[in-house]
Design goal:
The complex is a heterotrimer of chains A (288), B (761) and C (155). Chain B is α+β, with helices and mostly antiparallel strands and 761 residues long. Chain B has 18 helices and 32 strands. Chain C is of the alpha+beta class. Classes of the chains: A alpha+beta (288), B alpha+beta (761), C alpha+beta (155). The structure holds flavin-adenine dinucleotide. Flavin-adenine dinucleotide (FAD) is lined by residues 27-35, 52, 72, 99-100, 104, 107-109, 111-113, 115-116, 121-123, 159, 164-165, 192 of chain A.
Amino acid sequence: MRTFDYHAVGSAAEALDLLAQYGEDAHLMAGGTSLMLMMEQGLIQPGHVVGLRSANELRGIGASSGGIEIRALTTHREVERSSHVRDYCPTLVEAFERIATIRIRNQATIGGNLVHADPAQDPPPILLALDAEVVIQSKIGERTVPLDGFFRDYFETVVEEGELLASVRLPAIVAGTKSTYVKFLPRTEDDYATLSVGAALRLGADGSCEHVRVALGSAAPTPIRARKVEAALQGQRLTGPMIDEAAELVRDEVDPLDDVRGSAKYKREMARVWTGRALRSLLDGGGK
Amino acid sequence: MSMLTEDAARIFEAPEYRIEGPLKVSGRARYTADVKVPDALIAKFLLSPLPHAHIVSIDTSAAKAVPGVKAVLTGADIGLKLFGRVLYDWPVLAVDQVRFAGERVAAVAAETREAADDAIKLIQVEYEDLPSVFDAEEALRDGAPLLHPDPSGYFYGMGKRGDRPNLNLQGYELVKKGEEDIERVFASAHRVFEDEYSGPRQHQGYIEPHACVLWIDGDDVVHVYSVAKAPFGLRTQLSRVTGHPSPKIVVDSMFIGGDFGGKGNVIDEFPCYYLARATGRPIRSINTYAEELAAGAPRHAVKFYLRTGVDRDGRIIAHQSRAYFNGGAYGAAKPMPNCLVPAGVGPLEVYNVPNTRIETFVSYTNTVPCGHMRAPGSIYAGHAGEGHIDHIARELGMDPVEFRLLNCVRDGDRGPANEGFHKPKAVEVLEAVKRETSWGRPLLPNHGRGVVLRHRHVGTGKSEIVLRLLKGGKIEALYATPDQGSGSATVVRRVAAAVLSVDPERIEVRYGDTGEARLDGGSGASRVTHVVGQATIAGATSLKEQLQDLAAEVMGWPAGKVRLEGDRFVVADGSGEGGDFADVAGRIAAGGEVEAIGAYDSNTLSHDEADFNFYAYMIEVEVDPDTGRVEILDAVQVVDVGTIINPVAHQGQLDGSFVFGFGNAMMEELVEQDGLITTLSLGEYKLPTQMDIPPLRTVLVQDPVGCGPFGAKAAGEITNSGVAAAVANAITDAVGVRMKTLPLTAERVFASLQEQKGGVI
Amino acid sequence: MKLEHKATIAAPIGQVWAFLMDVPAVAKCAPGVESVEPLGDDKYRGTIKVSVGPIRLAFQGDVSIVERDEVAHTASMRADAADKRAGGAVKAVLTMSLSEVSTDPPVTELRMETDAQIMGRVGEFGQPIIRKKADQMVGEFGQNLSKAIAAGIAK
Ligand SMILES: Cc1cc2nc3c(=O)[nH]c(=O)nc-3n(C[C@H](O)[C@H](O)[C@H](O)COP(=O)(O)OP(=O)(O)OC[C@H]3O[C@@H](n4cnc5c(N)ncnc54)[C@H](O)[C@@H]3O)c2cc1C
């Protein structure tokens, strides 16, 4: 690893100043779980590392217009143990519990996770299914962007040089909406997903589909929404076979990577299987 | 000695956590990477990026100019120096040619890791590609590139190297039994079955990477802190490679952070010696995990071709096997004669087969040199052989357990390579499967059960140990068997206490380096309890005799009448006289330390047949037909064991074996593409974690007839080799597909199910 | 790693062939190529920048035409490049072959077969992503080529 200067900052503003000063040569560090691995491998070699750990304003979980706001520096473990989050949506807790090991969850942050933008991570699919937005801060001000559209490519997001991710906002959940997160781990429990699905569903009084979200991890260069599947179900009176048929459509929406967790071919089939299973479980009254 | 004395029974019964446990859990155990030597330089190596190339030129000038860099060495500086365990064919640093991606081309010693890393990047090497071969069978075809066209200069440490039909073979073996023309037997068979099985390279998965700290003192003594599990073996190798006299090399491998076979072969010590020579400074080398995974010495990839004929009653009458092991670019990492992998003969090793023809091929290829891993080769032989047996039983419409009972070896039978068995327990473990497991009971849909019958030999070798009464009355047991986590120190203490008939607490087991302790064969091949245990018996017996005589002398008791029993010296003349061990031993020791040397060589065994632990598995799985995911619902290992010296450690080895075998069966695979290993972290190469382990039950079939101390057998590498076959057989039972390639990933099962349906994905 | 790509170019085979033999022009079609200088003997030196998220790599190296067959319209190029900062290297052989799809309108099919090896430190980092990235890059290269040839014809 190259030697670097470490700057511990106490606020977002301080961090943004340093980013402005050092430009490309500076990298933000939250929990450091991903950044340090890349630095260790020599893949990124910043001269300056801006440590956010003491920027307390970037930490914590609170209410926000009927929903909740999770600030960027909140660790996975904090999300998992928060009663706020549990009250808001127990599925979110379940999804965060599936990340890596407790050691990693105690260190890694939600902001670091989203900006790192590895398509195999767990938070993005469930956050997409819950219509999350992220708040991005720069010296000029703040912008809010939907998470759907935040991810650009492998390890690439819309966060530009000189910006930082400040928080994740989740809107109020309409009563009757059920959600679920499935992480398919055929090798070991301690792994990135071979495929994961976050889904949300609300049925009207007549049994028709009022609201549906399907998002997948490990299925493409970025976490994705399965819009064709959603469109096929929206407004329909759902049945199991109809869900299976809609799930077939996910095959055309994914573009998975061939890797040790499965070939692209296999992941495409698993996208179909798990999309179907996730939605069927919601239809059958499962989910939270 | 196989009868359990009263003392032994009492001592062995009590479960005991290992002696060195507290040192380890409190971080005080000193591993090689913890050794701090003043002024040490950091060593780093430039690895070949190519699988096979001619080295046109190397320019180290820019690397040498990096501040803090003290030496940059290449093959041109040190010459062609070849190392190995039996066959010395692996260059310390490449000369003119590299034969695998990961081979060491240059070595740097620098004040800091950063300087060493920078220097490595600045070494300019011009390569010219040579044609490569990556597959074990392709390497043997006409026209395949020859990796070692002229092996005449390679030192071979076991006499004359065996005949090799092809220069691209590291080793070859043909074993036959019975009828010379086996085709005639096959022709007479009622039915003949053929199967092909394969397994990938797998990494031992120890957590401590290879490391060494080496320096040369003012008296020209080379000191090495190493992770080598056979320190005396390393001393010999280092001496042979460097020409440095072996009495002036001291190797210390006290604690090893995981081994599983991977610490039998070490590679850092050789270049570090030259770096120490070149700089006059101590050298520290700690590999990265990427280096471990790319260029350690993993388990071989293998392909088995099996053919077996049975008669009308289902008795096996002929068996033919060809095993192709992918040896990689060098045979150096293997300790067996002719670089063979010992399990080449193993697929049907527990069966009584009258006619066999078994061939083992170990090829040279342009891939990472392979070595040993827990029960070397046996997992693949097990997966192949027991899958094949299961296949035959099912085709014949016979119950797989009954088919095995019909064909397994019994007392007096000889195995496929004509080997004998000392009191084999195949029948007993199969009977226990029928009695103690759910075998044969009804099953839910997509559930299935598999059984396996296998064995593992108890290791052999030579070792010596020193037992010494110290001033103050403690007894020291000094030996050079490194501790790689198996708990041998506790075994030594218990055995010594049992023989001496003293409280185990009186005995202090101490590890000594090669300068201090006596010859030891190293901790591997399931030999330590047997060999070191028997050496301990010899040493303790001799010490006991001396102490009894000396007690008579110092106490004025009648000569020849003193017995050491129950932690006391007693005079066996009816007088009732005697004294506490501590008092009497203290008086003896006041006159000087008393020393006894215990030596053992397993060639002195009283029986001709080798000793084996037989074992069986019964595993029940559920298969998810939509995803191919396999879940183990119930696993029972039935193990034939001898005397148990420490119940905790013994069960720990059996449980650990299962877990190890579970990883090998279900997930472990070093992926190779065009000769390059691509799974370069433990995030990609996955080992099982606690969360993955299914319920496991152990059933012991116990008989104290082993060759170890008090009738002990082995424990460390028995049941790991059976998990894969048992799970694969259970999958067949559940959903009908036969899994012939390891690991048994969900994707493979899924693909087989698709194929079975006639669909293509 | 082996990659295969196809591109259809609306130009006569001869013109496409002529363009392909102009290495600096062809190289400029590869995404991220910064400079190409001739070294003589069909050899060129250049730099290509590749980024995956925060990882920025700059490969410097040589490209040479190792085979060309005007009649069969096949050529292969070899590239050897290294990134000094991260410590990684790429070796690639790119074989291009042209076939005439139709003469009127003129349509030529370009087939590219790439055999590449990514080595060293860079190679330790997710090979699958590297493969995908390389696949994207060669795909884009093919598209850029057809555009550049079409533009050349338009001029
Ligand atoms: C062994 C291991 C196993 C893992 N397993 C899983 C798993 O199963 N599932 C899963 O989802 N994830 C997994 N992860 C990934 C883990 O969740 C991420 O590494 C983590 O969330 C990153 O957060 P961090 O705070 O450590 O980020 P850092 O490593 O500090 O930063 C990551 C990146 O984000 C940038 N960054 C950080 N914070 C901000 C900010 N506020 N604004 C702008 N940029 C920022 C940094 O500059 C850097 O580029 C695993 C990681 C490891 C090491």
